[in-house]
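Changelog-adjacent note: as of this version, every example in the card shows the full chain rather than a window. The one below runs 92 residues end to end.
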Amino acid sequence: MNSDNSETYINHPTWGLLYRICMVDENQELFTTLYAQRLFFLVASDIKGMKFQPIGRTEARMMLENRLRNLRRTGQSQEYDQLQSVFQRTFQ
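Full-length structure tokens:
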């Protein structure tokens, strides 16, 4: 996993390709299933590998809203604009 703004995909053993929505914190990122975008996963990576934690749509939305607030507060407008469009596509 990487933390730049490029599109990132990982393969889930059951659900196939997942698309990275955003970073949540230093070693956790929010992913969704590539096509339906109805299943969400918190993906943590460490030296042992990746851990997939399924989360609900409401929780995923709240995480994304928090990330948007942080980006706005810290003035990261380019990342904010990109994430805002992801938010619109995913939750509206």
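Structural remarks: Helices lie at 57-73, 77-91.
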